[in-house]
Amino acid sequence: MKVLVVGGAGYIGSHMVKQLATAGTDVITLDNLSYGYRDAVKYGEFVEGDLGDEDVLDRVFSKHSIDAVMHFAAFIQVGESVLKPSMYYRNNVVNTLALLDAMVRHDVEHFIFSSTAAIFGEPEYTPIDERHPKQPINPYGRSKLMVEQILEDYDSAYGLKATCMRYFNAAGADPDGELGERHQPETHLIPLILQAASGRHDDIKVFGDDYATEDGSCVRDYIHINDLCAAHSLGLDRMCATGKSARYNLGNGNGFSVQQVIDSARKVTGRDIKVSIEPRRAGDPAVLVADSTLARNELNWQPAYADLDTIIETAWHWETGFLCKQ
Known about the structure:
Blueprint: E1 2-6, H1 11-22, E2 26-31, E3 45-48, H2 54-63, E4 68-71, H3 78-83, H4 85-105, E5 110-116, H5 139-158, E6 161-167, E7 169-171, H6 189-198, E8 204-207, E9 219-224, H7 225-242, E10 246-250, E11 255-257, H8 258-269, E12 275-278, E13 287-288, H9 293-299, H10 308-325
Parallel strand pairs: 1-2, 1-4, 2-3, 4-5, 5-6, 6-10, 7-9, 8-12, 9-13
Antiparallel strand pairs: 9-11
Helix pairs in contact: 1-7, 2-4, 4-5, 6-8, 6-10, 8-10
């Protein structure tokens, strides 16, 4: 099988490229490097180009007999999406349409879409399953839901099969230390905590300690990056075997509070981590946890890195290795 990974120079995409390549899959990465890193693409062929460039897309599809496409090239910052909705709708929706149209032109029928728990909005119940109402509260979540709806129409009209993977909180790093998380700017909790532990930041800011949770801090569902990628591979296998589209919520099914993550990081790193309590952020639910029963049953998927300490250990291994290279 030959797979095109769009956004394969980013955090999730680069781990996906490695997992596919080490399993024997022929991989081509397309990335414009606006947020990704060229040195993160360590396997397969790399093409520098923009997702919305029809000429680039046609050249890639004409040169290679692509069997499937995995899409990780969305913009992902919720706050930025509120300030710059045009940027998010153009990249996340319009450019994705260009990709889908290129797939239709070149008769590529299998698509894996990196979606998000943000499509659900404020949770009406937890854990959140696939039937939960979809009422996103920001342009980022709306842009992802729009693409999911577009994919339903492309399935009906063109026979393009799509599997949408709704992530909760991707975390951790390649256990080999070869790849890790390095967003600019970084907004994810675990790398921010570890950057405080390593001295890259003075402290970690906790937004609210008065939620209706056991310790007052928000509870989130963290899924290790390798487990996330494994679900994508299994989803692609099932889609090719059944010829059916699907939607899956991906998480460990266990929630950890911000304070629990900080405590785990202190234990793993052996370092004191200074905490600064800040006011709550608007739109932050107290608890967000996935019900991944459907993915576990239909894909026979089982997270291998469900333990929080293990997730943080892999991220710390990356953080300390990254600092040594600076």
